[in-house]
Amino acid sequence: MAQFSLSAQLRTRTELRDGQGAPLPAGAKPAVFTSQRSRLTAGYAMPGLKLGLTVQDVRVWGQDASTINRVTTADNNGFMLHEAWAEIDIVDSLQLKVGRQELVYDDSRLLGNLDWLQQGRRHDAALLKFRHTGWVLHLGGAFNQNKENSSGTVYSPVTGYPANTNGSQQYKSLEFLYVQKKSLSFLFLADQFSKYTTDSTNVKKWQSSAYNRMTTGLFYSWKKRITLAAYYQFGHTPAGENLSAALLSAAYLHPFGTRFTAEAGIDYTTGGKAVSAFDPLYGTPHKFWGAMDYFYVASGFGNKGLQDYYLKGKYKPSAKWSVGLDVHQFFSAASYNFGTEADLTASVQLHKFVGLEGGYSHFMSTDYLTSPGVKNVANARSNSNWAYLSLNIKPELFSK
């Protein structure tokens, strides 16, 4: 029997940004705005075939003039196709999924859908999926082009829209192998970036050849209590420099009864210069390195690498309510102090399909963080704030 489902999502988020992403200079005024994600998701399943389609619109309230039928600025057009994929059964244990899709693996550190960002992240890719006797094996690939060319494979990344968590350009092609058995998984990922030359006016001329970067490593999770990860990155950076970098992570979560959990952990990424700076690829950094997105998200921090020592607590008095408090102490890979961040969040499920979430974050930065070689903020304030309130309405419209 075929099954069809249709769901919707309307998620608004009002933010107060008073130093989110990087400290503001003294005298700068905070920003306040409301963004909105509007999604419609359809799914179809029958024996041997699944289809998925998600269309979405992401805008800031007031972005469009209220009396015209187009956006005020073409670059702000937020209507797009987020997902459009088909998955077919080749045999019982082997499927092929092809089209625009999210790639989410392990804890989403290196491959995630970046759901916190209103527009999220997706890939135009093909994915071969194999599962047998507890083994999971995925082989994926993507090859990007700007248009239907008559000759050549020159790819010009879209400028102004960083494609990964470290601000790099969009990849020209990508391949990965993922193998998982019980608590342990292995990832090998290669992504290629178009080579380029720069003319006298600093304009890039893209070439058909590409630099190759590779990332490989292991992820281990035991009953969601102990989490360990180690990854090594090598090859070339998107700018063509020789690369040797690493990421190490360890965390332990302990439940205290049924209502409270506490977690302690450390993340370490190499850095100091571009050739040793680890790039967290296409993950969800907001989940790991502080809610104010100072590292691997909003603005660069000089390829300094990162040490993050953190404590997290979560109290859930009922199935509807939860409150969390996270504290991070950040250092560069060379142990220079970046600062301290505290994140307080609370959420309540108002209805089966309606959730309300809010949070407040405070960052106490150091002079080193705002120095020219890191964030490069002159006359920076030492204390920064960020707050948000989000309403998430996600009903199931139809299922048959």
Overview of this protein structure:
The chain has 400 residues and is mainly beta. The protein has a single domain, classed as Porin, CATH 2.40.160. Helices cover 1% and strands 56% of the residues. It has an 18-stranded antiparallel β-barrel. It is globular. 29% of the residues are buried. The model has no long low-confidence stretch (mean pLDDT 93).
Describe the structure in brief:
Helix content is 1%, strand content 56%. It is built from 1 helix and 19 strands. The chain has an 18-stranded antiparallel beta barrel.
Instruction: Please give the alpha-carbon distance between the first and last residues.
Output: 10 Å
Q: Work out the helicity level.
A: under 10%
| Whole-angstrom Rg | 22 Å
User: What fraction strand?
Assistant: over 45%
> What's the assembly state of these chains?
single chain
CATH architecture heading: Beta Barrel
What is the ordering of alpha helices and beta strands?
EEEEEEEEEEEEEEEEEHEE
Shape: globular
Major sheet details? 18 strands, antiparallel, barrel
Q: What structural class results from the helix and strand content?
A: mainly beta
Average the pLDDT over all residues and give the rounded result.
93
Give the low-pLDDT segments: none
Overall number of strands? 19
Count of discrete structural domains: 1
What CATH calls the topology is Porin
Count of alpha/pi helices? 1
CATH class: Mainly Beta
Pfam families: Alginate_exp
Domain Alginate export: 48-330
Protein name: Alginate export domain-containing protein
Organism: Chitinophaga lutea
